[in-house]
Amino acid sequence: MTENETKNQKKAPLPLGALSGVLAGFAALTVAEAVAGAVRPQAGPVVAVGGAAIDRTPAAVKDWAIRHFGSDDKLVLQLGILAVLALFALALGALALRFRRTGAAGVLLFGVVGAVAATGRPDSTGLTDALPSVTGAAAGAVLLYVLAGRLAPRAAEPNTSPSREDREPGEDREPGEGWDRRGFVIAAGAAAVASAGAGLLGRSLSSAGGRDAVASRRNVVLPAPGSPARAVPRGTGLRIPGVSPFVTPNGDFYRVDTALVVPKVDATSWRLRIHGAGVVRPVTLSFDDLLRRKLVERDITLTCVSNEVGGPYVGNARWIGVRLADLLAECGVEAPSKGGPADQLVARSVDGMTIGSPVEDVMDGRDALLALGMNGEPLPFEHGFPVRMVVPGLYGYVSACKWIKDIELTTFDAYDPYWVRRGWARRAPVKTQCRIDTPRPFARPRAGTVMVAGVAWAQHRGIDRVEVRVDDGPWQEARLAAEDTRDTWRQWSFAWQATKGGHTLTARATDRTGAVQTEKRARTIPDGAGGWHSVVVTAD
To answer: DSSP string spanning 153-189?
Structure first.
Protein backbone atom coordinates (compact mmCIF):
# COMPACT_ATOMS: atom_id res chain seq x y z
CA MET A 1 0.00 0.00 0.00
CA THR A 2 1.37 3.46 -0.88
CA GLU A 3 1.63 6.32 1.60
CA ASN A 4 -1.17 8.16 -0.21
CA GLU A 5 -3.47 5.13 0.03
CA THR A 6 -2.87 4.88 3.78
CA LYS A 7 -3.74 8.52 4.28
CA ASN A 8 -6.88 8.15 2.22
CA GLN A 9 -8.27 5.37 4.45
CA LYS A 10 -11.04 6.64 6.69
CA LYS A 11 -10.65 5.61 10.33
CA ALA A 12 -13.72 5.05 12.52
CA PRO A 13 -14.43 7.89 14.95
CA LEU A 14 -13.19 7.29 18.50
CA PRO A 15 -16.70 7.63 20.00
CA LEU A 16 -17.80 4.57 18.01
CA GLY A 17 -14.98 2.59 19.58
CA ALA A 18 -16.15 3.72 23.00
CA LEU A 19 -19.72 2.76 22.04
CA SER A 20 -18.46 -0.70 21.11
CA GLY A 21 -16.99 -1.05 24.57
CA VAL A 22 -20.27 -0.03 26.21
CA LEU A 23 -22.24 -2.50 24.08
CA ALA A 24 -19.75 -5.25 24.95
CA GLY A 25 -20.00 -4.41 28.62
CA PHE A 26 -23.79 -4.38 28.45
CA ALA A 27 -23.77 -7.75 26.74
CA ALA A 28 -21.38 -9.17 29.32
CA LEU A 29 -23.55 -8.05 32.22
CA THR A 30 -26.87 -9.17 30.75
CA VAL A 31 -25.55 -12.58 29.71
CA ALA A 32 -24.00 -12.98 33.15
CA GLU A 33 -27.27 -12.08 34.85
CA ALA A 34 -29.14 -14.54 32.64
CA VAL A 35 -26.76 -17.32 33.66
CA ALA A 36 -26.96 -16.20 37.30
CA GLY A 37 -30.73 -16.48 37.09
CA ALA A 38 -30.27 -20.14 36.21
CA VAL A 39 -27.42 -20.78 38.66
CA ARG A 40 -27.99 -18.48 41.64
CA PRO A 41 -28.90 -14.77 41.62
CA GLN A 42 -26.27 -14.01 44.27
CA ALA A 43 -23.58 -15.26 41.84
CA GLY A 44 -24.14 -12.41 39.39
CA PRO A 45 -21.01 -10.27 38.90
CA VAL A 46 -22.46 -6.99 40.17
CA VAL A 47 -23.82 -8.65 43.32
CA ALA A 48 -20.66 -10.69 43.89
CA VAL A 49 -18.29 -7.75 43.41
CA GLY A 50 -20.59 -5.54 45.46
CA GLY A 51 -20.63 -8.07 48.29
CA ALA A 52 -16.85 -8.33 48.19
CA ALA A 53 -16.63 -4.54 48.30
CA ILE A 54 -18.92 -4.42 51.34
CA ASP A 55 -16.82 -7.03 53.13
CA ARG A 56 -13.64 -5.04 52.54
CA THR A 57 -15.00 -1.56 53.21
CA PRO A 58 -13.81 0.00 56.49
CA ALA A 59 -16.47 0.22 59.19
CA ALA A 60 -16.34 4.02 59.21
CA VAL A 61 -17.10 4.16 55.49
CA LYS A 62 -20.02 1.74 55.86
CA ASP A 63 -21.37 3.81 58.71
CA TRP A 64 -21.08 6.96 56.58
CA ALA A 65 -22.97 5.26 53.73
CA ILE A 66 -25.80 4.15 56.02
CA ARG A 67 -25.98 7.59 57.58
CA HIS A 68 -26.23 9.39 54.24
CA PHE A 69 -28.08 6.89 52.05
CA GLY A 70 -30.00 4.80 54.57
CA SER A 71 -31.60 1.69 53.13
CA ASP A 72 -30.62 2.96 49.64
CA ASP A 73 -26.93 2.36 50.39
CA LYS A 74 -27.00 -0.91 48.43
CA LEU A 75 -28.55 0.77 45.39
CA VAL A 76 -25.90 3.49 45.52
CA LEU A 77 -23.15 0.85 45.71
CA GLN A 78 -24.53 -1.06 42.72
CA LEU A 79 -24.90 2.13 40.68
CA GLY A 80 -21.33 3.01 41.58
CA ILE A 81 -20.11 -0.38 40.38
CA LEU A 82 -22.01 0.02 37.12
CA ALA A 83 -20.57 3.51 36.65
CA VAL A 84 -17.02 2.22 37.11
CA LEU A 85 -17.70 -0.66 34.72
CA ALA A 86 -19.08 1.79 32.15
CA LEU A 87 -15.92 3.92 32.33
CA PHE A 88 -13.70 0.88 31.84
CA ALA A 89 -15.91 -0.33 29.00
CA LEU A 90 -15.51 3.04 27.28
CA ALA A 91 -11.74 2.83 27.67
CA LEU A 92 -11.56 -0.78 26.44
CA GLY A 93 -13.69 0.09 23.42
CA ALA A 94 -11.39 2.96 22.49
CA LEU A 95 -8.36 0.70 23.00
CA ALA A 96 -9.85 -1.99 20.78
CA LEU A 97 -9.87 0.39 17.80
CA ARG A 98 -6.13 -0.11 17.59
CA PHE A 99 -5.60 -3.30 19.59
CA ARG A 100 -8.59 -5.63 19.13
CA ARG A 101 -7.16 -8.54 21.08
CA THR A 102 -6.02 -6.38 23.97
CA GLY A 103 -9.45 -4.80 24.31
CA ALA A 104 -11.17 -8.19 24.26
CA ALA A 105 -8.68 -9.52 26.79
CA GLY A 106 -9.59 -6.60 29.07
CA VAL A 107 -13.21 -7.75 29.09
CA LEU A 108 -12.10 -11.28 29.98
CA LEU A 109 -10.08 -9.86 32.87
CA PHE A 110 -13.23 -8.39 34.40
CA GLY A 111 -14.82 -11.80 34.08
CA VAL A 112 -12.00 -13.25 36.14
CA VAL A 113 -12.54 -10.58 38.81
CA GLY A 114 -16.25 -11.37 38.98
CA ALA A 115 -15.60 -15.12 39.15
CA VAL A 116 -13.09 -14.75 41.97
CA ALA A 117 -15.49 -12.50 43.89
CA ALA A 118 -18.41 -14.91 43.42
CA THR A 119 -16.53 -18.04 44.50
CA GLY A 120 -14.94 -16.22 47.42
CA ARG A 121 -18.23 -15.15 49.02
CA PRO A 122 -19.17 -16.78 52.36
CA ASP A 123 -22.39 -18.13 50.83
CA SER A 124 -20.73 -19.48 47.67
CA THR A 125 -21.91 -22.92 46.57
CA GLY A 126 -18.73 -23.72 44.63
CA LEU A 127 -17.21 -23.27 41.20
CA THR A 128 -20.62 -23.02 39.56
CA ASP A 129 -20.82 -19.50 41.01
CA ALA A 130 -18.05 -18.53 38.57
CA LEU A 131 -20.14 -19.44 35.53
CA PRO A 132 -22.13 -16.17 35.27
CA SER A 133 -19.03 -13.94 35.23
CA VAL A 134 -17.01 -16.23 32.95
CA THR A 135 -19.83 -16.71 30.45
CA GLY A 136 -20.75 -13.05 30.40
CA ALA A 137 -17.13 -11.96 29.94
CA ALA A 138 -16.66 -14.39 27.06
CA ALA A 139 -19.75 -13.02 25.32
CA GLY A 140 -18.60 -9.45 25.86
CA ALA A 141 -15.07 -10.16 24.63
CA VAL A 142 -16.29 -11.80 21.42
CA LEU A 143 -18.68 -8.94 20.74
CA LEU A 144 -16.01 -6.29 21.26
CA TYR A 145 -13.65 -8.16 18.94
CA VAL A 146 -16.34 -8.34 16.26
CA LEU A 147 -17.39 -4.69 16.57
CA ALA A 148 -13.80 -3.49 16.59
CA GLY A 149 -13.28 -5.50 13.40
CA ARG A 150 -16.16 -3.66 11.74
CA LEU A 151 -14.50 -0.38 12.70
CA ALA A 152 -11.05 -1.31 11.41
CA PRO A 153 -10.00 0.02 7.96
CA ARG A 154 -9.57 -2.74 5.34
CA ALA A 155 -6.17 -2.85 3.74
CA ALA A 156 -6.15 -2.32 -0.03
CA GLU A 157 -5.11 -5.19 -2.31
CA PRO A 158 -3.71 -3.88 -5.63
CA ASN A 159 -5.30 -5.13 -8.86
CA THR A 160 -8.00 -7.11 -7.01
CA SER A 161 -10.50 -4.39 -6.19
CA PRO A 162 -13.64 -4.46 -8.38
CA SER A 163 -14.85 -1.29 -9.98
CA ARG A 164 -17.89 0.43 -8.51
CA GLU A 165 -19.87 -0.72 -11.55
CA ASP A 166 -18.90 -4.37 -10.98
CA ARG A 167 -19.43 -4.40 -7.17
CA GLU A 168 -22.01 -6.87 -5.85
CA PRO A 169 -25.28 -5.41 -4.46
CA GLY A 170 -24.96 -4.68 -0.73
CA GLU A 171 -21.18 -4.46 -0.81
CA ASP A 172 -20.82 -0.97 0.63
CA ARG A 173 -17.09 -0.47 0.70
CA GLU A 174 -13.97 -1.29 -1.21
CA PRO A 175 -10.75 -2.57 0.27
CA GLY A 176 -8.94 0.51 1.44
CA GLU A 177 -12.10 2.65 1.54
CA GLY A 178 -12.39 2.64 5.38
CA TRP A 179 -14.45 1.01 8.10
CA ASP A 180 -17.59 -1.03 7.51
CA ARG A 181 -20.42 1.35 8.41
CA ARG A 182 -23.25 -0.93 7.47
CA GLY A 183 -21.67 -3.98 9.11
CA PHE A 184 -21.09 -2.05 12.32
CA VAL A 185 -24.66 -0.75 12.53
CA ILE A 186 -26.10 -4.21 11.93
CA ALA A 187 -23.79 -5.89 14.46
CA ALA A 188 -24.27 -3.18 17.09
CA GLY A 189 -28.04 -3.20 16.69
CA ALA A 190 -28.26 -6.97 16.87
CA ALA A 191 -26.02 -6.99 19.94
CA ALA A 192 -28.16 -4.40 21.71
CA VAL A 193 -31.37 -6.33 21.01
CA ALA A 194 -29.82 -9.66 22.05
CA SER A 195 -28.41 -8.13 25.22
CA ALA A 196 -31.76 -6.66 26.18
CA GLY A 197 -33.30 -10.08 25.62
CA ALA A 198 -30.68 -11.69 27.84
CA GLY A 199 -31.43 -9.15 30.52
CA LEU A 200 -35.14 -9.92 30.40
CA LEU A 201 -34.37 -13.64 30.48
CA GLY A 202 -32.18 -13.17 33.53
CA ARG A 203 -34.88 -11.22 35.33
CA SER A 204 -37.43 -13.91 34.48
CA LEU A 205 -35.17 -16.74 35.66
CA SER A 206 -34.36 -14.92 38.91
CA SER A 207 -38.05 -14.38 39.59
CA ALA A 208 -38.80 -18.02 38.81
CA GLY A 209 -36.11 -19.12 41.24
CA GLY A 210 -37.93 -17.35 44.06
CA ARG A 211 -41.43 -18.53 43.20
CA ASP A 212 -41.28 -21.52 45.53
CA ALA A 213 -40.23 -19.25 48.38
CA VAL A 214 -43.01 -16.77 47.61
CA ALA A 215 -45.53 -19.60 47.46
CA SER A 216 -44.29 -21.05 50.75
CA ARG A 217 -44.71 -17.68 52.47
CA ARG A 218 -48.18 -17.25 50.98
CA ASN A 219 -49.19 -20.64 52.35
CA VAL A 220 -48.00 -19.97 55.90
CA VAL A 221 -50.80 -19.74 58.46
CA LEU A 222 -49.49 -18.53 61.79
CA PRO A 223 -51.20 -20.36 64.67
CA ALA A 224 -52.70 -18.43 67.55
CA PRO A 225 -49.92 -17.77 70.07
CA GLY A 226 -49.88 -19.85 73.21
CA SER A 227 -48.63 -16.75 75.03
CA PRO A 228 -50.26 -13.74 73.34
CA ALA A 229 -49.06 -10.18 73.80
CA ARG A 230 -51.24 -8.13 76.05
CA ALA A 231 -53.44 -5.50 74.52
CA VAL A 232 -51.59 -2.24 73.96
CA PRO A 233 -52.69 0.07 76.80
CA ARG A 234 -54.80 3.11 75.98
CA GLY A 235 -52.76 6.25 75.70
CA THR A 236 -49.68 4.47 74.37
CA GLY A 237 -49.86 6.34 71.09
CA LEU A 238 -50.08 10.12 71.20
CA ARG A 239 -52.28 11.75 68.60
CA ILE A 240 -49.76 14.42 67.76
CA PRO A 241 -48.95 15.06 64.08
CA GLY A 242 -45.38 14.19 63.25
CA VAL A 243 -44.78 11.63 65.99
CA SER A 244 -43.79 8.13 64.86
CA PRO A 245 -46.67 5.64 65.22
CA PHE A 246 -46.33 3.31 68.19
CA VAL A 247 -46.35 0.25 65.91
CA THR A 248 -44.13 0.62 62.85
CA PRO A 249 -45.78 -0.78 59.69
CA ASN A 250 -43.75 -3.53 58.02
CA GLY A 251 -43.25 -1.43 54.91
CA ASP A 252 -41.78 1.42 56.97
CA PHE A 253 -39.60 -0.68 59.25
CA TYR A 254 -35.93 0.13 58.80
CA ARG A 255 -33.68 -2.30 56.96
CA VAL A 256 -29.92 -2.33 57.44
CA ASP A 257 -27.96 -5.38 56.27
CA THR A 258 -25.32 -6.37 53.73
CA ALA A 259 -27.53 -8.39 51.36
CA LEU A 260 -27.48 -6.85 47.86
CA VAL A 261 -30.03 -9.49 46.81
CA VAL A 262 -32.70 -10.25 49.40
CA PRO A 263 -32.57 -14.02 50.04
CA LYS A 264 -35.80 -15.80 49.18
CA VAL A 265 -35.84 -18.99 51.20
CA ASP A 266 -38.43 -21.71 50.71
CA ALA A 267 -39.94 -22.39 54.12
CA THR A 268 -40.73 -25.99 53.18
CA SER A 269 -37.04 -26.82 52.71
CA TRP A 270 -35.62 -24.48 55.36
CA ARG A 271 -33.73 -26.07 58.25
CA LEU A 272 -32.13 -24.74 61.44
CA ARG A 273 -29.26 -26.57 63.08
CA ILE A 274 -28.38 -26.01 66.75
CA HIS A 275 -24.99 -27.39 67.84
CA GLY A 276 -21.71 -26.51 69.50
CA ALA A 277 -20.10 -26.29 72.92
CA GLY A 278 -22.40 -27.37 75.73
CA VAL A 279 -25.08 -28.65 73.34
CA VAL A 280 -25.84 -32.08 74.78
CA ARG A 281 -28.54 -32.87 72.25
CA PRO A 282 -27.87 -31.24 68.85
CA VAL A 283 -30.99 -30.77 66.78
CA THR A 284 -32.09 -29.81 63.28
CA LEU A 285 -35.50 -28.15 63.06
CA SER A 286 -37.86 -27.46 60.17
CA PHE A 287 -40.24 -24.54 59.83
CA ASP A 288 -43.18 -26.82 60.62
CA ASP A 289 -41.37 -28.00 63.76
CA LEU A 290 -41.36 -24.41 65.00
CA LEU A 291 -45.00 -23.83 64.04
CA ARG A 292 -46.01 -26.84 66.14
CA ARG A 293 -44.38 -25.44 69.25
CA LYS A 294 -45.90 -23.01 71.72
CA LEU A 295 -45.64 -19.61 70.08
CA VAL A 296 -44.98 -16.41 71.97
CA GLU A 297 -46.21 -12.98 70.86
CA ARG A 298 -44.48 -9.84 72.09
CA ASP A 299 -44.12 -6.14 71.27
CA ILE A 300 -40.40 -5.40 70.90
CA THR A 301 -38.53 -2.34 69.65
CA LEU A 302 -35.42 -2.97 67.57
CA THR A 303 -32.56 -0.52 67.09
CA CYS A 304 -29.64 -0.54 64.65
CA VAL A 305 -26.21 0.28 66.05
CA SER A 306 -25.68 2.57 63.04
CA ASN A 307 -28.47 4.82 64.25
CA GLU A 308 -27.11 8.30 64.88
CA VAL A 309 -28.52 10.39 67.71
CA GLY A 310 -31.98 11.37 66.45
CA GLY A 311 -31.71 8.88 63.59
CA PRO A 312 -34.44 6.79 61.92
CA TYR A 313 -33.10 3.24 62.37
CA VAL A 314 -35.40 2.20 65.19
CA GLY A 315 -38.84 0.61 64.94
CA ASN A 316 -41.42 -1.20 67.02
CA ALA A 317 -43.34 -4.29 65.92
CA ARG A 318 -45.42 -7.16 67.30
CA TRP A 319 -43.38 -10.33 66.82
CA ILE A 320 -44.52 -13.95 67.08
CA GLY A 321 -42.11 -16.83 67.45
CA VAL A 322 -40.50 -19.46 69.66
CA ARG A 323 -38.56 -18.71 72.80
CA LEU A 324 -34.91 -19.26 72.00
CA ALA A 325 -34.06 -20.02 75.63
CA ASP A 326 -36.54 -22.92 75.64
CA LEU A 327 -34.96 -24.46 72.55
CA LEU A 328 -31.48 -24.10 73.98
CA ALA A 329 -32.55 -25.64 77.29
CA GLU A 330 -34.02 -28.64 75.46
CA CYS A 331 -30.64 -29.07 73.78
CA GLY A 332 -28.98 -29.18 77.19
CA VAL A 333 -27.45 -25.69 77.00
CA GLU A 334 -26.80 -23.88 80.27
CA ALA A 335 -25.99 -20.21 80.72
CA PRO A 336 -22.40 -19.32 81.68
CA SER A 337 -23.63 -18.18 85.12
CA LYS A 338 -24.81 -21.75 85.69
CA GLY A 339 -21.65 -23.40 84.51
CA GLY A 340 -22.27 -23.60 80.77
CA PRO A 341 -19.06 -23.69 78.68
CA ALA A 342 -20.35 -21.37 75.92
CA ASP A 343 -20.72 -17.64 76.41
CA GLN A 344 -21.43 -16.72 72.77
CA LEU A 345 -24.23 -17.83 70.45
CA VAL A 346 -23.19 -17.45 66.81
CA ALA A 347 -26.12 -17.25 64.39
CA ARG A 348 -25.43 -17.83 60.69
CA SER A 349 -27.58 -16.57 57.86
CA VAL A 350 -28.14 -18.15 54.46
CA ASP A 351 -26.19 -15.24 52.94
CA GLY A 352 -23.09 -15.95 55.04
CA MET A 353 -23.63 -13.29 57.71
CA THR A 354 -22.52 -14.25 61.24
CA ILE A 355 -23.88 -12.54 64.35
CA GLY A 356 -22.72 -13.21 67.89
CA SER A 357 -24.99 -12.81 70.94
CA PRO A 358 -24.18 -13.30 74.64
CA VAL A 359 -25.65 -16.63 75.78
CA GLU A 360 -26.31 -15.11 79.20
CA ASP A 361 -28.55 -12.41 77.71
CA VAL A 362 -30.45 -14.86 75.52
CA MET A 363 -31.18 -17.11 78.51
CA ASP A 364 -31.77 -14.53 81.28
CA GLY A 365 -35.56 -14.58 80.97
CA ARG A 366 -36.06 -11.84 78.40
CA ASP A 367 -38.22 -12.57 75.36
CA ALA A 368 -35.45 -13.62 72.97
CA LEU A 369 -37.28 -15.14 70.00
CA LEU A 370 -36.84 -17.08 66.84
CA ALA A 371 -39.45 -14.92 65.14
CA LEU A 372 -41.75 -16.30 62.45
CA GLY A 373 -44.17 -13.40 62.15
CA MET A 374 -44.22 -9.61 62.26
CA ASN A 375 -47.28 -7.46 62.88
CA GLY A 376 -49.72 -10.28 62.27
CA GLU A 377 -48.22 -11.79 59.11
CA PRO A 378 -45.30 -14.06 58.18
CA LEU A 379 -42.01 -12.20 58.16
CA PRO A 380 -41.49 -10.15 54.98
CA PHE A 381 -38.56 -11.40 52.92
CA GLU A 382 -36.71 -8.14 53.59
CA HIS A 383 -36.97 -8.77 57.33
CA GLY A 384 -35.83 -12.37 57.42
CA PHE A 385 -38.47 -14.83 56.20
CA PRO A 386 -38.81 -17.60 57.13
CA VAL A 387 -37.11 -17.15 60.54
CA ARG A 388 -35.01 -14.49 62.23
CA MET A 389 -33.73 -13.71 65.71
CA VAL A 390 -35.14 -10.94 67.89
CA VAL A 391 -33.51 -10.15 71.24
CA PRO A 392 -34.81 -7.13 73.18
CA GLY A 393 -32.15 -4.87 74.64
CA LEU A 394 -29.36 -5.67 72.17
CA TYR A 395 -28.41 -3.80 69.03
CA GLY A 396 -29.23 -5.68 65.85
CA TYR A 397 -25.65 -6.49 64.88
CA VAL A 398 -25.29 -8.66 68.00
CA SER A 399 -28.75 -10.22 67.98
CA ALA A 400 -31.04 -9.78 64.98
CA CYS A 401 -29.85 -12.44 62.52
CA LYS A 402 -32.18 -12.57 59.51
CA TRP A 403 -32.63 -15.61 57.24
CA ILE A 404 -31.06 -17.69 60.02
CA LYS A 405 -30.00 -21.26 59.25
CA ASP A 406 -27.50 -22.23 61.96
CA ILE A 407 -26.88 -21.60 65.66
CA GLU A 408 -23.52 -22.56 67.12
CA LEU A 409 -22.63 -22.31 70.80
CA THR A 410 -19.03 -21.18 71.29
CA THR A 411 -17.03 -18.53 73.18
CA PHE A 412 -16.11 -14.94 72.51
CA ASP A 413 -12.44 -15.90 72.72
CA ALA A 414 -12.82 -18.63 70.11
CA TYR A 415 -14.70 -16.77 67.39
CA ASP A 416 -15.21 -13.22 66.11
CA PRO A 417 -18.40 -12.73 64.05
CA TYR A 418 -18.65 -10.56 60.94
CA TRP A 419 -18.99 -7.13 62.52
CA VAL A 420 -16.53 -7.77 65.36
CA ARG A 421 -13.84 -8.55 62.77
CA ARG A 422 -14.53 -5.09 61.36
CA GLY A 423 -14.01 -3.10 64.52
CA TRP A 424 -17.35 -3.23 66.31
CA ALA A 425 -17.71 -4.24 69.95
CA ARG A 426 -18.40 -7.84 70.93
CA ARG A 427 -21.15 -6.82 73.32
CA ALA A 428 -23.59 -4.02 72.62
CA PRO A 429 -26.63 -3.41 74.85
CA VAL A 430 -28.92 -0.70 73.51
CA LYS A 431 -28.12 2.73 74.93
CA THR A 432 -30.81 4.96 76.42
CA GLN A 433 -31.90 7.38 73.72
CA CYS A 434 -34.49 10.06 73.10
CA ARG A 435 -35.55 11.56 69.77
CA ILE A 436 -37.49 14.71 68.90
CA ASP A 437 -39.91 13.89 66.06
CA THR A 438 -41.69 17.23 65.97
CA PRO A 439 -40.98 20.03 65.28
CA ARG A 440 -38.55 19.04 62.57
CA PRO A 441 -35.13 20.71 62.29
CA PHE A 442 -35.36 24.25 60.90
CA ALA A 443 -39.15 24.27 61.20
CA ARG A 444 -40.89 27.64 61.54
CA PRO A 445 -43.80 27.14 63.94
CA ARG A 446 -45.95 30.05 65.04
CA ALA A 447 -45.15 31.62 68.38
CA GLY A 448 -47.39 30.39 71.18
CA THR A 449 -48.07 26.82 72.27
CA VAL A 450 -46.00 24.40 70.21
CA MET A 451 -46.12 20.67 70.87
CA VAL A 452 -42.66 19.17 71.11
CA ALA A 453 -42.92 15.38 70.94
CA GLY A 454 -41.04 12.23 70.08
CA VAL A 455 -40.01 8.79 71.25
CA ALA A 456 -37.54 7.41 73.80
CA TRP A 457 -36.21 3.89 74.21
CA ALA A 458 -34.10 1.80 76.57
CA GLN A 459 -35.14 -1.76 75.73
CA HIS A 460 -35.24 -4.24 78.60
CA ARG A 461 -34.84 -1.39 81.08
CA GLY A 462 -37.73 0.87 80.20
CA ILE A 463 -38.12 4.67 80.10
CA ASP A 464 -38.88 6.43 83.37
CA ARG A 465 -38.64 10.12 82.42
CA VAL A 466 -38.06 12.48 79.48
CA GLU A 467 -36.99 16.09 79.88
CA VAL A 468 -36.84 18.99 77.43
CA ARG A 469 -34.64 22.06 77.53
CA VAL A 470 -35.21 25.25 75.54
CA ASP A 471 -31.95 26.99 74.65
CA ASP A 472 -29.85 27.11 77.84
CA GLY A 473 -32.82 27.11 80.18
CA PRO A 474 -33.67 24.56 82.86
CA TRP A 475 -34.72 21.01 82.13
CA GLN A 476 -38.48 20.60 82.17
CA GLU A 477 -40.24 17.25 82.48
CA ALA A 478 -42.23 16.05 79.49
CA ARG A 479 -45.47 14.08 79.66
CA LEU A 480 -44.94 10.39 79.01
CA ALA A 481 -47.45 8.32 77.10
CA ALA A 482 -48.58 5.04 78.64
CA GLU A 483 -45.99 2.28 78.59
CA ASP A 484 -46.63 -0.97 76.76
CA THR A 485 -43.65 -2.95 78.07
CA ARG A 486 -40.08 -2.14 79.04
CA ASP A 487 -39.01 -3.69 75.71
CA THR A 488 -40.83 -1.06 73.64
CA TRP A 489 -40.21 2.58 73.00
CA ARG A 490 -42.29 5.23 74.69
CA GLN A 491 -43.81 8.36 73.25
CA TRP A 492 -43.62 11.72 75.03
CA SER A 493 -44.79 15.31 74.56
CA PHE A 494 -44.05 18.76 75.93
CA ALA A 495 -46.18 21.90 75.48
CA TRP A 496 -43.68 24.64 74.73
CA GLN A 497 -44.68 28.28 75.01
CA ALA A 498 -42.61 29.49 72.08
CA THR A 499 -41.47 33.09 71.82
CA LYS A 500 -40.49 34.66 68.52
CA GLY A 501 -36.99 34.02 67.27
CA GLY A 502 -34.55 31.16 66.89
CA HIS A 503 -34.39 28.45 69.55
CA THR A 504 -32.62 25.16 70.24
CA LEU A 505 -34.73 22.34 71.66
CA THR A 506 -32.93 19.46 73.41
CA ALA A 507 -34.33 16.27 74.90
CA ARG A 508 -32.92 13.57 77.16
CA ALA A 509 -34.29 10.41 78.77
CA THR A 510 -33.81 8.56 82.04
CA ASP A 511 -34.24 4.80 82.10
CA ARG A 512 -35.77 2.73 84.87
CA THR A 513 -32.40 2.01 86.46
CA GLY A 514 -32.10 5.74 87.13
CA ALA A 515 -29.37 6.26 84.55
CA VAL A 516 -29.70 9.58 82.71
CA GLN A 517 -28.93 9.64 79.01
CA THR A 518 -25.38 10.90 78.63
CA GLU A 519 -24.60 14.27 77.09
CA LYS A 520 -21.26 13.02 75.81
CA ARG A 521 -21.27 12.62 72.07
CA ALA A 522 -20.14 9.24 70.76
CA ARG A 523 -19.89 7.83 67.26
CA THR A 524 -21.89 4.80 66.31
CA ILE A 525 -18.65 2.80 66.18
CA PRO A 526 -17.91 0.64 68.17
CA ASP A 527 -21.07 0.15 70.25
CA GLY A 528 -23.69 2.77 69.41
CA ALA A 529 -24.08 6.54 69.29
CA GLY A 530 -24.35 8.67 72.41
CA GLY A 531 -25.43 12.23 73.20
CA TRP A 532 -28.56 14.39 73.38
CA HIS A 533 -30.79 15.07 70.38
CA SER A 534 -31.33 18.75 69.54
CA VAL A 535 -33.24 20.61 66.83
CA VAL A 536 -33.03 24.25 65.85
CA VAL A 537 -36.30 26.01 65.02
CA THR A 538 -37.51 29.55 64.43
CA ALA A 539 -40.80 30.72 65.92
CA ASP A 540 -42.57 33.31 63.75
So the answer is: PPPP-TTTPPPGGGPPTT----TTSB--HHHHHHHHH
